Amino acid sequence: MRRRPLLTAVGLSATAATAGCLNRGNQQVQLARFSAENFDSEIHQFDLRVDRDGETVHWSTHEIRGKGENRIYGAVADCDWETAPGTYEVFARVDAGEWTSKLLTDVKEGWLDSVKCATAHVECHDNGHLWLRLQDNCERFVPSRSTNVCSIEHETDE
């Protein structure tokens, strides 16, 4: 058996298969908003953290009361991480439990692989179960219509 050609073929296949994944990690995204809602009937303490390029640029704690008969309560993190594009990772935990995190590059716009702006939203359900969601819905949250929204640089067609 000829090992050198076989090893070369395997190495090239592995490189080609992961090329798209590696490229997505370098994608530059802006974070427009980070919010939390409590769908549980009990009060919970939410910790929200934002890392950009490996450095923590936001950490806040929000005590959110339990849902009412016809109302869900929530909080929005102050936009103190600025809006510099970068490699963002958002973290959330409830009642000082385990962190849940996601990279902003995991969000997709429809069927496209790249998004320039994203929002993060965490929900707490019964028994403190967390759900962290990323969305490409920045146009829904513009500073003139919402509070605690970062001013995002929008591309212009020139």
Structure explained in plain terms:
14% of the residues lie in helices and 37% in strands. It is mostly beta strands and 158 residues long. The protein has one domain (27-140): Sandwich (Immunoglobulin-like). A four-stranded mixed beta sheet has the order 4-1-7-8, with no helix packed on it. Strands 3-2-5-6 form a four-stranded antiparallel beta sheet, with no helix packed on it. A hairpin with a 5-residue loop joins strand 5 (88-94) and strand 6. The radius of gyration is 19 Å and the shape is globular. 27% of the residues are buried. Mean pLDDT is 79; it is low at 12-25 and 154-158.
Task: Set down the secondary structure blueprint.
Blueprint: H1 3-24, E1 30-38, E2 44-52, E3 55-64, E4 73-76, E5 88-94, E6 100-103, E7 117-125, E8 129-135
Parallel strand pairs: 1-7
Antiparallel strand pairs: 1-4, 2-3, 2-5, 5-6, 7-8
Overall pLDDT: 79
Q: Please give the CATH architecture.
A: Sandwich
**Quick one: how many beta strands?**
8
Query: Which class do the helix and strand fractions yield?
Result: mainly beta
Pattern of helices and strands = HEEEEEEEE
Which consecutive residue ranges, at least 5 long each, have pLDDT under 50?
12-25, 154-158
Sheet with most strands:
4 strands, mixed
Residue share in β-strands: 35-45%
CATH homology group: Outer membrane usher protein
With strands numbered from the N-terminus, the spatial order across the biggest sheet is 4-1-7-8
Q: Given the structure, what is the number of helices? A: 1
CATH topology: Immunoglobulin-like
CATH class: Mainly Beta
Which shape, going by the Cα principal axes?
globular
Domain module count: 1
Gyration radius from CA atoms, angstroms? 19 Å
Helix content: 10-25%
First-residue to last-residue Cα separation: 59 Å
